């Protein structure tokens, strides 16, 4: 049951540039229960993707296979639990000892857009900068969840291995990012996704209605209470 899952006490590793963080890696934030919660929530979407002609050759694909996450006409995440977990990550990042003016990291966010990718063992994604969601935006922070096979992730001049359960938060306009490759046979023994890497990305949805955005700004604070049971507290004790 997702509400009973535990999240590990993550080792947060900020990477800085020009005096501010560009990306923050939360190692092992999703426990086995949390990873399975993602797989359960996206099971039907992953099944539909595998049923396509491209999906039937996932083991040979050199590109990622996209999941249908929400209607293109209304780009707002339709899976509340995943959206709430992403808001929790934003809140956790704000609680780190980082600059107060961390280029948009400290602000509260409204609704989020979701994107899902399945990477087979031969897949990659060319390094790139994201296109701004908001006109004239200079910084956009995206949350990336990783489940299944490990991925060799490119972040500017660094390569970071993202393991199943790792969560990455990055400024996608400042970080040139991509996937150099997938590590075969690297899924944890207790993870049911053995042949692919699932990447779930969330970022702030664009809504030109300023009033609507203001009304939704409280969702992040409420999310901390709503999904707090999914995260560890830093101790080894288990709740009943």
Describe the structure.
The chain has 240 residues and is an alpha+beta fold. It is 20% helix and 29% strand. It is built from five helices and eleven strands; from the N terminus they run E-E-H-H-E-H-E-E-E-E-E-E-E-E-H-H. The strands form two sheets. The chain has a seven-stranded antiparallel β-sheet. It has a four-stranded antiparallel β-sheet with strand order 5-10-7-8, with no helix packed on it. Helix 3 crosses helix 5 (219-226). It starts with 10 loop residues before the first strand and ends in a 14-residue tail after the last helix. 37% of the residues are buried. Residues 1-7, 212-221 and 223-240 have low confidence and may be disordered.
- Number of beta-strand segments: 11
**Global mean pLDDT:** 78
Number of helices: 5
Strand order of the largest sheet: 1-2-9-6-11-4-3
Report, as a whole number of angstroms, the end-to-end distance. Answer: 14 Å
Order of SSEs: EEHHEHEEEEEEEEHH
Question: What is the alpha-carbon Rg in Å?
Answer: 17 Å
Task: Give a short summary of the structure.
The protein is an alpha+beta fold. The chain has five helices and eleven strands; from the N terminus they run E-E-H-H-E-H-E-E-E-E-E-E-E-E-H-H.
Which helices and strands occur, and which strands form pairs?
Blueprint: E1 11-17, E2 20-27, H1 32-41, H2 43-50, E3 65-67, H3 80-94, E4 112-119, E5 125-128, E6 141-148, E7 150-155, E8 158-162, E9 167-171, E10 177-183, E11 197-204, H4 210-216, H5 219-226
């Amino acid at each position: 049951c997702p509400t009973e899952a535990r999240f590990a006490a993550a080792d947060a590793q900020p990477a800085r540039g020009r005096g501010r963080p560009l990306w923050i890696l939360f190692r092992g934030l999703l426990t086995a229960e949390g990873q399975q919660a993602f797989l359960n929530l996206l099971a039907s979407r992953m099944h539909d993707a595998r049923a396509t002609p491209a999906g039937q050759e996932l083991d040979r694909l050199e590109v990622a296979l996209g999941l249908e996450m929400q209607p293109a006409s209304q780009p707002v995440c339709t899976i509340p639990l995943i959206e709430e977990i992403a808001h929790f990550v934003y809140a956790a990042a704000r609680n780190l000892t980082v600059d107060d003016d961390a280029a948009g990291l400290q602000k509260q966010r409204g609704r989020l857009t979701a994107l899902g990718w399945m990477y087979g063992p031969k897949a990659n994604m060319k390094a790139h900068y994201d296109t701004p969601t908001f006109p004239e935006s200079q910084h956009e922070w995206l949350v990336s969840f990783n489940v299944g096979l490990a991925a060799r992730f490119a972040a500017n001049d660094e390569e970071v291995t993202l393991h199943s359960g790792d969560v990455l938060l990055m400024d996608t306009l400042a970080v040139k990012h991509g996937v150099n490759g997938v590590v075969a046979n690297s899924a944890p023994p207790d993870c049911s996704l053995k042949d692919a890497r699932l990447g779930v990305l969330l970022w702030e949805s664009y809504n030109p209605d300023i009033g609507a955005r203001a009304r939704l700004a409280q969702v992040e604070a409420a999310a901390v209470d709503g999904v707090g049971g999914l995260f560890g507290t830093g101790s080894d004790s288990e709740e009943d």
